[in-house]
Each structure stands twice: as C-alpha cells, then as structure tokens.
Design goal:
Length: 269
C-alpha cells in the first residue's frame, strides 16, 4: 500500500538559520563593518531525522506489535544519523565554514531572497505539473542566490578571518554545491537533488573538471545512504514483512545494552 503520510520535510521548505554573533564586529580593510553569522544547520538537520523517524513509525511499523516497535525505535535512537543529512567525507569543509562573514547589506539581501523563495514555493498555482515546475524556477533561483551571496561574502571577507591557503582553494569551489545539496536532500525528490545541487553548472562542465565529477559521485552515493543497509524504498508501495525483524536481529548481534534488554524482557502487550 502506498504511504502518503505528510512529514515536515515534504510540507514546508526550510532554510538553515543565519545566527548573528552579537559579540563580534570588525571593520574590513576598506572600512566596511563586517559581522559574523553562524550558518546553523542543527534545527534543519534534526527536523529531517524526526521526519524520517515519523515516516518509519507511520508507514513501516504500523502492523507490528508494541515490543517490535519499541526495539526498532530504540535502534533508530542509538544509530548514527550524521551521514543522513550530509556526506561525512566533507564534514570538515562544512565545519570549517560554519561561520560566515558579511556586511549588513549582504545579510539583508540574503533575508530578501529567503523570503522570496518561500513565498514563491508556497504559492498555489492551478496549472499542470510541467507549468508548476517551471514556475518554481523562480524559487530555485532565489535559493541559489541566497547561497551565492553567502559564498561571495566569504570570498570577499573570509580570508581576513579564516585561515586557509591556496591548496585549499577547491573547498570554496565545492562549498556552494555542498550547501545546496544539504538544503535539497530532504526537500525534493531524490532524482532532483543532484541537479539542484549543481544548479547552473552544466553536465559538460561537470565532466570536464575532476573536482566536479568526483564531487557528483560522492553526492550521488550519499543521496542513496541509509541508516539501515537494506533501506525500505521510501514512499513506495509495500515492504517485506520480514524486513523489520531482520533489522532488529542484525542489530542485536552487534549491540546489546541495558535499555535494549529491558525492552526484550518486557511482556508483549
């Protein structure tokens, strides 16, 4: 049976938060006041995980007994979800540029494009699918401009505050793509995540440059990543009834702790 449960990630578009560091204020070499903002993905990432856990609860566990449900949920709680939201291979790049530096005018323009992207995304359009998708190009352009402005500000002022040399210049080349990938991974269909991440970068350009080609392969691999080795096909009809017990048994062979044992020793209700 098709599961059409609505989750946070497929109802509302969300952005990472730009959080101003109130204790930081500096003047760049040309006298412009520069502020530091944290590009905070923490709430964004947590919502994605909660959304997937909710989907499992509503679409996979609904036919199982209470003990099986508790064990499966406990396994999810104890599992490492870090690669669910972004590729671990690029963890250091994300963390290195967790703080961004920009003038107030750049920050205001980011807020403008965020607001415009949300407005266009949520606008009701009584057209066929292809026309609606074309109209959503406005929102996608605004999202691209949002991350472009943050990256451009980093290119202008980042070197005054972040230590990196020319050997690490490729981090800047891939940074915008990595941000867009993290943004889109759980906010659009899996078939569109990569193309949206490489927005305005053509296939020929990707093939001509190893840095793009290798990054695309890494992102495609992460786009298929699952907390479980043999993922239930998301948002598709049906699943093998033996799948959940197999996941539990596989986990129990490697991990047994007090909380798991307490559930196992409960009387089935």
């Amino acid at each position: 049976m098709y599961c059409n449960v609505k989750t946070v990630s497929n109802i509302n578009m969300r952005f990472p938060n730009l959080v101003k560091d109130e204790d930081f204020e500096n003047k760049s070499k040309n006298g412009t006041k520069i502020f530091r903002y944290e590009l905070d993905w923490s709430e964004f990432d947590k919502d994605n995980v909660k959304s997937r856990e909710y989907w499992y609860d509503q679409c996979v566990l609904d036919t199982y007994d209470n003990k099986t449900k508790k064990l499966f949920k406990k396994i999810m709680d104890e599992s490492d979800w870090s690669d669910f939201n972004r590729p671990g291979k690029y963890k250091d790049v994300y963390e290195k540029f967790q703080y961004v530096y920009m003038s107030h005018s750049y920050y205001k323009e980011c807020k403008h494009f965020k607001k415009l992207a949300l407005s266009e995304w949520n606008r009701n359009r009584s057209f066929d699918t292809s026309v609606r998708e074309t109209c959503l190009g406005v929102s996608q352009s605004c999202i691209d401009l949002y991350f472009f402005l943050i990256l451009d500000a980093l290119n202008i002022w980042g070197k005054d505050f972040i230590d990196y040399d020319e050997d690490e210049e490729e981090e800047h080349i891939v940074l915008g793509i990595l941000w867009r990938f993290r943004f889109w991974k759980h906010q659009t269909g899996s078939g569109l995540v990569i193309s949206n991440s490489f927005y305005n970068i053509g296939d020929e350009e990707i093939e001509d440059f190893d840095i793009y080609k290798n990054l695309k392969k890494d992102l495609e691999d992460n786009n298929k990543w699952s907390i479980f080795k043999d993922e239930v096909p998301p948002y598709r009809g049906g699943h093998n009834e033996d799948w959940v017990p197999k996941v539990i048994q596989r986990h129990l062979k490697k991990h047994r702790n007090t909380s798991i044992n307490e559930i196992l020793n409960e009387n089935t209700k």
